[in-house]
Amino acid sequence: MVRLYADENFPLEIVRQLRQYQYDVLTSYEAGKANQSIPDDEVLAFATQEKRVLLTLNRDDFIAFHQSGISHAGIIICKDDRDYIGQATILQTCLSENSDFTDRLIRIKRNNHPKSSIQIFIYLEYTR
Predict the structure, then answer these.
(1) Strands of the sheet with 53-56, listed across from one edge
(2) How far apart are CA 75 and CA 44, in angstroms?
(3) Confidence (pTM)
(4) Which is more confidently placed, 88 or 116?
């Protein structure tokens, strides 16, 4: 099963839901890495060293790291959105459909259907 590392800004509600799905999620707080202003490249290096896919809301920096060619155990970028159950559900789908996230960047996005009030989350993979 995929092991995950939630950076310090990642919503704990999503972490809790992923744990209910039986995923191994380590938070920055549990790793002793919270509230230290650790640079994002070091956050990614720690997740990679621990062989954990990084969970983050920080879109700009981690897309840039991915596109620069830095090797990593995987990056999943979620939205800053209070529908935590919706995001955890699509995360669970993404994690169950993929076993290797090495050097892959996945984004969780809201997919708004035209002429409908239904909004669902989808996941997309970004290439280098």
Answers:
(1) 24-27, 3-6, 53-56, 75-77, 105-112, 119-126
(2) 8
(3) 0.93
(4) 88
